[in-house]
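Cross-check.
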Amino acid sequence: MDLEEKTLDRVGDRCEECGAKLTPAELQAVLESGGPALCSIHAAEDEPGLAADEAGFIEDA
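Predicted model, tokenized:
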């Protein structure tokens, strides 16, 4: 029985919402977050605070 933790090695190369081909940066974000494969547009719709933070609009206090 294999009890080792499995990691996500591969994700789809298309957005699950619109089918757009994901950029290398979008693919990396999906791998790091472990979340669904979404283009930056749909990822921002799901997590608007993250998009603002990544764009540098939110300053640390």
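The helical segments are 24-33, 40-46, 48-54. The chain has one domain: 14-61. Passed to J.P. for a second look.
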